[in-house]
Predict the 3D structure of the following.
Amino acid sequence: MTNRLVMDKTYTTRRFIAEWEPVEAVLIALPFEATDWNYILSEAILQYKKLIEALLSTGIYVVVLCRDRDEARLALGRQIADNERICLSEIDFNDTWIRDYGPIHIENHGELRCLDFGFNAWGLKFPADKDNLVNLGLSERNVLIRSAYRNHRDFVLEGGSIESDGTGTVMTTSRCLLSPNRNGGKTKHEINEILYEKLGATHVLWLDYGALEGDDTDSHIDTLARLAPDDTIIFTGCRDIDDPQFESLLKMRAQLELFRTAEGKPFNLVELPLPSPVFDPVDGSRLPATYANYLIVNEHILMPTYGDPLNDRLAVNTMRIAFPEHRVIEVDCRTLLRQHGSLHCATMQLPVGALNQNIFEL
């Protein structure tokens, strides 16, 4: 049993865009006093400045969501805030993990669509009333192309919970999408139907194993395994038999070996190392460090690192093998980890055509 569900319907006008397709901009949400970053706000701002600088080095636009534009300009400094490829967009939000409430883009009959799914803070764990209105706000403010916006907030779907290959295959985890606190405990078949209807998913891969200590997301796929070009899956491995995560990640690997493409072929599996344990300096709990939380931006890979020289280097070299035509940009994400997320969680890419270029003329 490979635990993959193939839809009887094989034709759809919709196509969930893969992350490695052309990207025009990236969204981030800047921490401020009212967020959970308050206790280490200056450190968090420095972390986000480094992330923005890394994004700008790829040549794309960066849209920075902020509560107050003047405060954001002061926090980021003129060198970043006045960059011609930076847009500071005032909008209120609860949390900075925009991957999970930001817009998800598809093509429908070849036209770009910006889908706004429901967000309830990873199964009602935290407040999310403002996060849940961000995409609508960005559309109404003409930051995103208004005509592309579609309201799908009747279904809870977080960006970090799904992976696409751009041709109908979607990979997710049963622990997350089958959570009763998200969509009332729908079955895999019911969710497959929804993923087909909304994203054009015709081949759904369900991971039943894999969990990281300290993860609030109920095993988001972008912490564990990622789809890549040429029928490849890049996944988090664990070689330390004494690590509490060893058994779960070993079972995950075994299941990945059983997965098949839509054509019935096995995937090429590329293993990333598990970072050495990182612990919260306040309460001593283990944090969910993972190299799988990278971001693909055109010919670049933004790679999270954790001050772990041996494993950081192994992870970077692995990505260079998996993406030989891409430049790997390392970003130290130890501060992001303090709030139980990493680089991919803090960003949401916008495909070409999603961004209203006029905002940079204001």
